[in-house]
């Protein structure tokens, strides 16, 4: 799920340009308007946007960003999951930035939901991700990673090779034991865990030398039991690359197939929009207000959103067998909510050209749970995409 605000960003730059006048005016904007708000302003905006697209002086950079989500159902990142991770990251076609969201990295038992956060599983996942990304380039991943960020006031402190992280409060996170691995191709930029929801962002080291990376921050929003426990909710990362702000939101929303459960999911989306914020620091500019999700230039929302299919189980399985994804999407809850404006207004989703991802049997990843013949201990679940 992506939100793009290129036009609004250009228009904002247009007004900045008129006010500051720090370089020559290649489009003669000062001659076209006296700065007042009159009927020519809309026309001027459009002319400026078209001119921006043609201006050869504007530099653009292309970045390949892999955004993925995986509900690991409480499994620890050891053994067979290492092979699964390699296949999932598709390292034959590498990206510049990897943004990975996970759900249920710990079982959602009461002790994990209401107890103190344990960083162990998040650290293990970061170790596995770092090893998977860097082994491809013959870079053995020998040194343990930093502990995951625990404070929502985390702030990335520059691009130094000291391999340290500092929070806004001045406390230093646990440093790496031993010397930094200079061979590593990818660097962990940020990670955040809330109960079972986890996000991990990795970037090629060469990008840190080539581009200005700043304002890396994290935020978590718990909206599960009673609206405030962390069994459901989101973890987010905000960062700026060469002045373009990015926001990545990994979410795990309410489950349930009963009528009206989609309303609970919609409400949680609204709560995440309302409560996610990233504090501004003096180096971020003059705006003292926290940065919200919609305040970013590029936004990516992903996760286990738990939206279902408005379709009986046997009919859904028939369409899956025919690989008729278009017909299946006609019954998709999230698609209908998008069309009706119930959630994610003005957002767009990528094409779905793959089978529903929920719910596979724990004993056979090529078979959906339930169905016929029935197996002992398996709950009947209508397949769905759940994104």
TrEMBL record:
<dbReference type="InterPro" id="IPR000300">
    <property type="entry name" value="IPPc"/>
</dbReference>
<dbReference type="InterPro" id="IPR045849">
    <property type="entry name" value="IP5P_plant"/>
</dbReference>
<dbReference type="InterPro" id="IPR036691">
    <property type="entry name" value="Endo/exonu/phosph_ase_sf"/>
</dbReference>
<feature type="domain" description="Inositol polyphosphate-related phosphatase">
    <location>
        <begin position="61"/>
        <end position="387"/>
    </location>
</feature>
<dbReference type="GO" id="GO:0004445">
    <property type="term" value="F:inositol-polyphosphate 5-phosphatase activity"/>
</dbReference>
<comment type="similarity">
    <text>Belongs to the inositol polyphosphate 5-phosphatase family.</text>
</comment>
<dbReference type="GO" id="GO:0046856">
    <property type="term" value="P:phosphatidylinositol dephosphorylation"/>
</dbReference>
<keyword id="KW-0378">Hydrolase</keyword>
<dbReference type="GO" id="GO:0004439">
    <property type="term" value="F:phosphatidylinositol-4,5-bisphosphate 5-phosphatase activity"/>
</dbReference>
<protein>
    <submittedName>
        <fullName>Putative type IV inositol polyphosphate 5-phosphatase 7</fullName>
        <ecNumber>3.1.3.36</ecNumber>
    </submittedName>
</protein>
<dbReference type="GO" id="GO:0034485">
    <property type="term" value="F:phosphatidylinositol-3,4,5-trisphosphate 5-phosphatase activity"/>
</dbReference>
<dbReference type="Pfam" id="PF22669">
    <property type="entry name" value="Exo_endo_phos2"/>
</dbReference>
């Amino acid at each position: 799920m992506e939100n793009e605000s290129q036009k609004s960003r250009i228009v904002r730059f247009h007004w900045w340009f008129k006010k500051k006048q720090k370089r020559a005016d290649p489009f003669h904007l000062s001659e076209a308007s006296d700065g007042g708000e009159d009927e020519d302003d809309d026309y001027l905006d459009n002319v400026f946007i078209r001119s921006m697209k043609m201006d050869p002086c504007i530099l653009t950079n292309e970045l390949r960003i892999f955004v993925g989500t995986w509900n690991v159902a409480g499994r620890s990142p050891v053994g067979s999951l290492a092979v699964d991770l390699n296949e999932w990251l598709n390292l034959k076609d590498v990206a510049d930035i990897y943004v990975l969201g996970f759900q249920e990295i710990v079982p959602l038992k009461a002790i994990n939901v209401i107890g103190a956060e344990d960083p162990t599983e998040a650290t293990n996942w970061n170790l596995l991700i770092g090893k998977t990304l860097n082994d491809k380039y013959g870079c053995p991943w020998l040194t343990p990673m930093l502990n995951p960020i625990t404070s929502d006031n985390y702030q990335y402190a520059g691009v130094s090779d000291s391999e340290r992280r500092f929070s806004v409060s001045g406390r230093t996170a646990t440093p790496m034991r031993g010397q930094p691995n200079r061979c590593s191709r990818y660097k962990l930029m940020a990670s955040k865990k809330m109960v079972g929801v986890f996000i991990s962002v990795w970037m090629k080291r060469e990008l840190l030398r080539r581009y200005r990376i700043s304002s890396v921050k994290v935020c978590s929003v718990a909206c599960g039991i009673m609206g405030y426990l962390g069994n459901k909710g989101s973890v987010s990362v905000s960062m700026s690359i060469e002045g373009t702000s990015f926001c990545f939101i990994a979410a795990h929303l309410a489950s349930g197939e009963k009528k009206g459960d989609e309303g609970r999911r919609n409400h949680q989306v609204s709560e995440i929009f309302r409560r996610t914020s990233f504090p501004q620091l003096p180096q971020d500019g003059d705006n003292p207000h926290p940065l919200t999700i919609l305040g970013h230039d590029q936004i990516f929302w992903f996760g286990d959103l738990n939206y279902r299919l408005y379709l009986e189980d046997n009919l859904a399985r028939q369409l899956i067998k025919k690989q008729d994804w278009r017909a299946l999407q006609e019954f998709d809850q999230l698609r209908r909510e998008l069309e009706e404006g119930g959630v994610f207004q003005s957002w767009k989703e990528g094409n779905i050209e793959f089978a529903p991802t929920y719910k596979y049997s724990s004993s056979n990843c090529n078979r959906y749970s339930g169905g016929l013949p029935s197996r002992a201990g398996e709950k009947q679940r209508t397949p769905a995409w759940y994104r």
